[in-house]
Each structure stands twice: as C-alpha cells, then as structure tokens.
Amino acid sequence: MLKTFLINLDRRSDRLIFVKRQLGNLGIDFERISAVDGNCLTDEQKVFLNQPRFALECKRKAVSGEFGCALSHRAVWQRMVDESIPFALVLEDDVQLNSELVSLIAEEKNYHSFDFLNLTLKRPYYDIDAVEIKKSLSQKQLIRPAFWQVIKRKAWRMMEVKAIVKWKIYRLHALHNGMIACECDFAPSLACCYIVSLQGAKQMLLASDNLFYPIDKVWHYCGGLLKEGFLAEPLAFQSLDSDIPHRVRFKLTFWQKFIRFFVKGRHWRRRLDVIRMYGWSRL
C-alpha cells in the first residue's frame, strides 16, 4: 500500500479523529506528521520566507498559519528524501475522502507516471463533458494535438476552462475503474490531498527554499521536468473551515506595482521544462 502521511496540529485532535475515522473505514494505514504551529515559529524556521516578494506576488503578507503549513509539507518531503520513499500520499486533516481512493492507490501503475497528482479540487478546472467525450474515443493515452491540427485542437480546448490563463492539458491517462488523470500545466492549487514522487519531493524542497507564495503553488515553480496532473473527477474535498485566518490583501505602492509587473507569476523554470517535455507545437 502507498505510504500515507497525515499532517495534523497537536492541538487539533478533533481533526485527527475526523480523518482517522475515514482512513480506518477505507483500510488505509497512515503515519501522522505533527504539523508546525505557525503561532510558535522560531527565527530559524522563518528563514525560508521571503516576505517582501510574497507581498508582491499575493498583494498581502504571509500569515503565520500558512507558513506553518508550508513547513509541515516540507517536513513530509524531507522524510521522503531522507528515507528514499518512491511515492507518498499526503493528506491534510480537513479532507473528505471518496471511497474510490482505495482503488487508485492500490496499484502503482495508476500514479507512477506522475511526479505530482492532485486528487482534490475546490472549483472546476476542466469541462467534464468534454473529458467524457475523449474517454469514449479511446481508452488509450491521449496526447494534445499540435497547433496545426486545428480541428482536433478545438475539441481538446473544450476540456480547458478558458477563465484560467494559459491552462493546458497535455495528456489524458485512463486509470483503473474508469478514472481519468489529466497531465497538465499548471497543476491545480490546494494541497489537502495529493500523491508525490521522490523526484517531486526533491524539487519542491528546492523550490520552497525561498518561499514567496502559498505552499499549494510550489509545483508551479518547480524544475526537474516534473509530470504534474489532476483527476478529472476528484477523490477528495477540503471540507472544513481553514485554520489559517487573517489573509487580508492591501494596496501596493506605485513602486511595488512597478516591480510586480516584472516578477508576478514568472514561472520561468517550469515553463522551460514544459517546452522540453511537450515541445513548442503543443503549447
């Protein structure tokens, strides 16, 4: 069975019970990771946070709770590196799980093609009807058409929510029990339930050494030619209220706005890797 880590604050035993009951019903063994409490950070722990750049990226300051969350996920990735764990399922303690999760993690072939596979969504990232159309065409892996294949390209674009800037789905993977995984860039944010490879863990540690964004965007900035994706029909949902309050935006100064224009959302390393993996013709 896939190694499973549950991130849980010591003071939130109620949430531990909430997820432990679900995992017990599904027959999934897990290891609890004591989450870093953002209210008790040391100076050494704060060294990763680039607060000025965070303000430019998000128009707000990073609050202590989300930085504690970031350190907690980093602790899981470091465990994977230290112990050479090839793949791991990572859960936060506010997740509601679908019973189909057992089928997904039962066989490595369902996720071994991915370095990061997000199993949860909080809003649509795809047109599910279009995905079903693609599924009916073939049970084999489907690859995004090149830009000169105009008709096929148009059908493919039906799967991609137009409101998301430069969102691309590059491949569809037919998994067990009719599940479909969408290989994409960028992978959806939200870190309450995902599968990560050892290579993914290494690259996420590197990308978060200088943290200027919420940790659930770290895969947007990773190098290492990571294959990222999500499930067309999610198996997990963030069902409880966030433990990270007071994320309040503020107005930037004129100088901050000027700098932000040049640095905001510049995922250069990831973008270059995407070109190397999929080629110019499929962008």
TrEMBL record:
Annotated metabolic or biological route of this protein: Bacterial outer membrane biogenesis; lipooligosaccharide biosynthesis; Glycan metabolism; lacto-N-neotetraose biosynthesis
Source species: Snodgrassella alvi
InterPro entries: Glyco_trans_25
Alphabetical GO biological process terms: lipopolysaccharide biosynthetic process
Name of the protein this chain belongs to: Glycosyl transferase family 25 domain-containing protein
Keywords: Lipopolysaccharide biosynthesis
Every Glycosyl transferase family domain range: 1-219
Xref: Pfam families: Glyco_transf_25 (PF01755)
